[in-house]
């Protein structure tokens, strides 16, 4: 693949951060197992991040919890000083102290420390999009969102996103502050968050699906890469792979979807990005819409 970007469709997060709708989820560039610690092939990871940007990706998703800080560090190491149009979205509210210890902490104190830490690791003065990684059942949701609003008022965060949320939580959050994005699970085979996507469409909120290839956060592999049935049939007809059709379908599914499939290989990165150039006919979309899904 040459360096010409194939990504032609954009979305304006909060009406101002214009990003290509094909982004990159950086979580897997972390130590394994458990996405914990530094990515062992640090130079290889940097190469992949640079290739992503070279191919037109200008939206990268990360989190304090990925690699427990190292994921943000590899992004800065690879890409700082950043291209003007690059948007890095990070998240806070999970305290990850070991590969198998994922503890929600969305207390105002932890979120404040998290934002300060992310600013340092990412070498930024302001985080363009800061997402609450997960509501914390021990902390009133309104307190977590108010803490983010305070950090926004102080200029440390430009826009606020939320992740792993319910409809009720979106409503509550929006009563406190403008919500620019929601990051929940969604793929062609798992549409349990259809109502959340609909709510985002209605309210001009970006929807950033994780699990777009059916991946389990802590296991390797993308089940949709080996899908059979309609997905495989349409892929075969077009001379592409089922995972590419799964991604292309999401891009056709709703205009506010920004994809962030992750990978650790440049070959997969290039194959995934190529999905943004796949045109699906109305008939193909209709058959894909009928694929049986987790609802
Ligand atoms: N908010 C949350 O709670 C949450 C949860 C999970 C993830 N996320 C975010 O969402 C991003 C995406 O997550 P995800 O669950 O969609 O994926 P992911 O966790 O980033 O992993 C994708 C998996 O699919 C494989 N893969 C990718 N492209 C492939 C291809 N073309 N052919 C075959 N296998 C392929 C990758 O393996 P290879 O490395 O071998 O390509 C990897 O194991 C993450 O990186 C993270 O930023 C957020």
What is the element layout, followed by pairings?
Blueprint: E1 10-13, E2 17-20, E3 24-25, H1 42-54, E4 59-61, H2 70-79, E5 87-92, E6 94-98, E7 101-104, H3 108-122, E8 127-132, H4 141-153, E9 157-163, H5 167-176, E10 179-183, H6 194-202, E11 206-207, H7 230-238, H8 242-253, H9 266-274, H10 282-289
Parallel strand pairs: 3-4, 4-5, 5-8, 8-9, 9-10, 10-11
Antiparallel strand pairs: 1-2, 6-7
Helix pairs in contact: 1-2, 3-4, 4-5, 7-8
The structure holds NADP nicotinamide-adenine-dinucleotide phosphate.
Summarize the structure.
The chain has helices at 42-54, 70-79, 108-122, 141-153, 167-176, 194-202, 230-238, 242-253, 266-274, 282-289, and strands spanning 10-13, 17-20, 24-25, 59-61, 87-92, 94-98, 101-104, 127-132, 157-163, 179-183, 206-207.
Could you characterize what this model shows?
With 295 residues, the chain is of the alpha/beta class. The chain has a domain at 17-183: NADP-dependent oxidoreductase domain (TIM Barrel, Alpha-Beta Barrel), CATH 3.20.20. Helix content is 37%, strand content 16%. The protein contains ten helices and eleven strands. The chain has helices spanning 42-54, 70-79, 108-122, 141-153, 167-176, 194-202, 230-238, 242-253, 266-274, 282-289; strands at 10-13, 17-20, 24-25, 59-61, 87-92, 94-98, 101-104, 127-132, 157-163, 179-183, 206-207. The strands form three sheets. Strands 3-4-5-8-9-10-11 form a seven-stranded parallel sheet, with helices on one face. It has a two-stranded antiparallel sheet with strand order 1-2. The radius of gyration is 18 Å and the shape is globular. The termini are far apart. The relative contact order is 0.14. Mean pLDDT is 94; it is low at 1-5. The site of NADP nicotinamide-adenine-dinucleotide phosphate has 28 residues, from α9. NADP nicotinamide-adenine-dinucleotide phosphate is lined by residues 25-28, 61, 163-164, 183, 210-213, 215, 217, 220-222, 225, 243, 260-265, 268, 271-272.
